[in-house]
Design brief:
single chain; about 120 residues; alpha+beta; Tetrahydropterin Synthase, Chain A; five-stranded mixed sheet; 5 strands; about 25% helix
Length: about 120
Amino acid sequence: MFIIRVETHFSGAHFLNGYIGKCSDMHGHNWKAIVEVKGNKLNKSGMLIDFKELKKIANEISDKFDHKVLNEIDYFNDKNPTAENIAIYFSFELKKRLPELEINLIQVFETDDYAATYIPDK
């Protein structure tokens, strides 16, 4: 089994509906997302996937969030834009674009100290 990992970054604001505390007010983060895919079959070049290809896809996903109010993105119409829900969104988008690979994990950091990790069920 091979695991390929890339990171992407975006800056975005959000607020949490139904939350009691400061996070119910609009605030921003410099987010980091770690994307890992896995598989057993290497291509002709001896790679599971080119790092550059995975990075390009991860950046395309994060670009949707960059310098946005995350609550205004359609995906979050009925859910809070938490690190957990952002990680699920990354997983769905990656699976659509890379159906031949498994998602190993998505980890989304709000800060250096706070992250949520999503490991999709098989």
